[in-house]
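Help wanted!
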Amino acid sequence: MVVLAAALESEGAPSYFRCYDSGDLTVPEDALTWLGLADRMPRMRLWLPTRNWILPEFDSALAALNAHPRIIVRPSAMCFGDKSPEVSGLSAGTTSPDDNKMLGAGLADYTCPGGCGACRVCWDRPELSVEYHRK
Ligand code: SF4
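Answered by r_m:
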């Protein structure tokens, strides 16, 4: 974590950081890494999409992360086409349709416009569930 924080600072710390592009917490104690990073980077917001929510042993760790004022933990749907998960103690969930023609089919509150650009919904709107589409 110290190495990651130093690397981010040397590159100019971003305001928004996604934890895991592909991957997830390996053990609940991994939450301490992200909590430590958030505390070292006071201007940065972190978004952590995860499927760890299906494993009860991660409940406390994910809730602790989501309780941090600058970390949003979103439970990811397990399968394409699932409604976005609602998990007590976490931010609103995310999902993807199993067919792009289903976009906006009510699987989530907000349909991702793609590409981020100026959008920061995933970090700034924890109450909105999000539906992504595949490219
Ligand atoms: S909803 Fe917005 S912030 Fe989230 S991935 Fe899509 S464009 Fe990026």
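OP: Thanks! One thing I noticed: The first helix runs from residue 2 to 11.
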